[in-house]
Amino acid sequence: MTTMKTTRANLVVLDMAGTTVADGGLVEQAFAAAAQRLGEDPASMIDYVRATMGESKISVFRHLFGDEARAQAANAAFEEAYGELVDGGRIAPVPGAREAVDELRAQGRTVVLTTGFARATQDAILDALGWRDLVDLTLCPADAGGRGRPYPDMVLAAFLRTGAVDGVQQIAVAGDTSYDMLSGVRAGAGIVAGVLTGAHDKQQLQTHGATHVLGSVAQLPGLLAGADR
């Protein structure tokens, strides 16, 4: 007897900054502050920072500074600066994001939030938004072996830790950067949705593997409901 296979996306892995969290350019501001604290000119590096939005921040600093000690110092300065901006009330949900998560869960899906930030910064954002209990699981690169996007590790960690689905084709990934798209594709996710509320445009998202491009994460529950079979 053949068992009918389902491709319903019962595991949804969502990026934070730019996808569910509107940070108003705080990543660039925190990077500039970190570079200045180390005596570097942020203007010479900002293009690379923009191109690698979504990547683990320590990986970005390793590329920019080369030396591990200097990269760690830059990352610590970045996390401190970003935390100060969060504490100053400079962060808010993307309009409709919380409602979208609630709807996804009401549809019977497991929702995971991921980030390229360190755990302390991720927790500060969750606390500032009152999102500690919003989703089933939150992950940062350190929770998945230390590699962030564009590696598939956080998506696969969500798959393994939640046990929500039988195969990776039943995963939906959503994010605002090309690295979000790459991580979803490399993990084998059945749906890789780009959103236009963050760093990268439609062409960048599609070039890096987006199966769908949405105006915002608020449209994701409708997309997944229509794709269920």
TrEMBL record:
InterPro entries, from UniProt?
HAD-like_hydrolase_sf, HAD-like_sf, HAD_sf, PGP-like_dom2, PhnX-like
Sorted alphabetically, which Pfam families does this protein's record hold? Hydrolase (PF00702)
Q: Which residues form the signal peptide?
A: none
- Protein name, as recorded: Phosphonatase-like hydrolase
Organism, scientific name: Streptomyces maoxianensis
